[in-house]
Every structure is written in structure tokens, then in C-alpha cells.
Design a protein that fits this description.
mainly alpha; 6 helices
């Protein structure tokens, strides 16, 4: 059995049909340079991508996936341990571990903006401008 090309899948057909106008609109608001520029070029189907931009995009994606795994692996292992030892875990322990695991998983949402701010210069500069600007009374 041969592997389907992405454009032949349901998602690929949607994105090439009705979804293309949505994606084009999204691509119009992205910057032209940096990692977000790579995403814009992919959306606009620009075949020429500098190797440096490809590497930056890969590194950013890899970092985000690693943080995602680090935040959700405890949930996975806890569920396995809980299903095996359900009768041996007290209600208080279950409550504390459930809340801790949920907190770790939710922290992933707060790590992503930090990762973007550290890894993408445009976002870092914009954040610094917002933090460092002075407000003058008129």
C-alpha cells in the first residue's frame, strides 16, 4: 500500500479548497523575515527558503515539542500507575497528585510565549519595547 500524499488527504483537500483563502489571509499578516517569515513562505508556497531560516524553524519547533512532552509525560505515567495501583492510592494522595499533574500540564501554555520571546528576535524586541517604554503625561 503506497502512502498518500498530503494533498490527497481530507485535510489537504480542505486546505487547497476552501481553507486556502483562510490560510492566505493568515499569511498576509505574518512578517517577511525570521521564523515567522518561514511560515509565511510555506503558506505562500514560496519554494526558496534560506537554510538558516529552515534551521531556526526546526529548532523552534523541536524546542516547543520537547517542552510539550516534558509537560505531558507526567500525566501519561501517572495514568498508567494509577490504573495499576488504584486500590492502593488514598483519596488525599490522588487529589494532590491530580492537581500537581494538572498544574504541570497547564504550565505548558505559559512556557510557549517565553519560548517564542527567547527564540524569535522580532518578538523579543517588541516585548522589550513594551516593557521599557516610558509613558509621558500630556
Amino acid at each position: 500500500m503506497s502512502k498518500k500524499k498530503f494533498k490527497d488527504t481530507k485535510v489537504g483537500k480542505f486546505l487547497s479548497g476552501a481553507g486556502s483563502s483562510i490560510i492566505d489571509s493568515f499569511g498576509d499578516v505574518l512578517p517577511d523575515k525570521g521564523v515567522m517569515g518561514v511560515v509565511k513562505n510555506l503558506i505562500k508556497k514560496d519554494p526558496v527558503l534560506p537554510a538558516e531560516d529552515k534551521e531556526k524553524a526546526f529548532n523552534l519547533t523541536f524546542t516547543i515539542l520537547c517542552v510539550l512532552l516534558l509537560c505531558y509525560l507526567p500525566v501519561f505515567f501517572y495514568r498508567i500507575a494509577y490504573s495499576r495501583y488504584v486500590s492502593q492510592i488514598s483519596t488525599e494522595t490522588k487529589f494532590l497528585v491530580d492537581q500537581s499533574i494538572l498544574l504541570i500540564a497547564l504550565l505548558n501554555s505559559s512556557f510557549n510565549p517565553v519560548i517564542y520571546a527567547v527564540r524569535i528576535r522580532q518578538i523579543r524586541v517588541a516585548c522589550m519595547e513594551l516593557v521599557c517604554r516610558t509613558i509621558t503625561a500630556e
